[in-house]
TrEMBL record:
Residues 1-30 form the signal peptide. Keywords: Carbohydrate metabolism, Fucose metabolism, Glycoprotein, Glycosyltransferase, Membrane, Signal, Transferase, Transmembrane, Transmembrane helix. It is found in: Membrane. It comes from the Eukaryota. The keyword DNA damage does not apply. GO terms for cellular component: membrane. CDD domains: O-FucT_plant. This is O-fucosyltransferase family protein. Belongs to the glycosyltransferase GT106 family. Transmembrane segments: none annotated. It comes from Papaver atlanticum.
Amino acid sequence: MLNNGGVFVGLLVLLLPVFFPNLFSPLGHASPSIFSEWNTPKPRHLPLLKGALQHKTKYGQRSDLWSPLASQGYKPCFDSPTTHVLPEKSEGYIQVFLDGGLNQQRMGICDAVAVAKILNATLVIPHLEVNPVWKDSSSFSEIFDVDHFIDVLKDEISIVKELPKEYSWSSREYYATAIRATRIKTAPVHASANWYLENVIPVLQSYGIAAIAPFSHRLAFEEVSRDIQRLRCKVNFQALTFVPHIKSLGDALVSRLRYPSEKYLRERTSENERQGDGKFVVLHLRFDKDMAAHSACDFGGGKAEKLALAKYRQVLWQGRVLNSQFTDEELRNQGRCPLTPEEIGLLLTALGFDNSTRLYLASHKVYGGEARISTLRKLFPFMEDKKSLASAEERAKIDGKASLLAALDYYVSMKSDIFISASPGNMHNALVGHRTYENLKTIKPSMTLLGQLFLNKSMGWSEFQQAVQEGHRNRQGQIRLRKKKQSIYTYPAPDCMCQA
């Protein structure tokens, strides 16, 4: 009888994945699987969390937090200082093939316009490669308003939507099958303007066309003229606008964030609690599996999570994660660990945001799903995202398309009163630069300070809050002038801004 029972139990274990696959599948939106690597982690900073949940922000502090930035002595400059005159004859056609996500492609587009200007060439609307991580095949015209792009730049360079028939052979497939004389593969990272003049002009003169791939980060931030720097910013801040349906949906989400339902308003009865009405914060919660694996930090998910991330790291990067040689404590002391949803929630509360704050979550996919976000939601119950604010019908054109989802988040982020990103990255850099250009409040977390504070397990809430506020007093959108070799897309002053 015992043996039969043992056999039965063994068969049951073997058949569990067949009859109950969800128990073993990755975490969805609702609840974690029993045997998943993403079993709900316990809060890592429980004393701070208890202090944050009991915390009540004073009205004066809250009012100051929401106040817009004062003028900092700089204003946007779109136009170059010289008169624009298009040359009578183009040197030929320039094609570029852009890798990466939306924000990396955005920077590539700006550089492509600049290179076409340097070469006196006609730019073909850039080709966006299929994103290898998100499997998104969205084209330029599906994300950006092409006609607006061409119109804004018509006095700067010549742009065509597609090649004329005699060059129709010059396609992505053509360059994928063999070495071609018209393809430029050797453009170094941060190449100078002279490099393009010396290496691409001969190809244009011989064939009338040149395809530059790879192209990401292929134009330097130094050794280019002031006109070219201004042109790059004109592309980024004026020419690149999203397609109408992204802007329309974005405006709808912003309206719902600023003017919530009557039920929501009734839940906040105190006048002090309603001082933030009509305002909202966008949080870019950059905590996907790639980010977690690449950091080599411990995120409190236990042994299963550690093993899963180590395996993923090995498969994806073959051990080329340089910081994996450091301990979690060393990485946190250096500020090299992404903030978890719990940690970003503690940061926001310490800064002065309370549980009545309208928070929009801009994120493609959070590692650990809703279970990982639950602590953040306890601190900020009025937290929204694309799915909670828009109907399935409204999202129909963008669901499953990572670039369009990112474009919607970018648009809403630019309309927010305050933007904060949990960790540095391409979207963080792009929005920091764009909001600097528009003089909008943007909180930049001090990763080193926070890493050290979260390691201190004896610290109480008041001490933590004071340290956070002091450490972030000058990290709320104050202009940082670009240093040599830094990106103009992250630091647009002084290259692309004029003194007011």
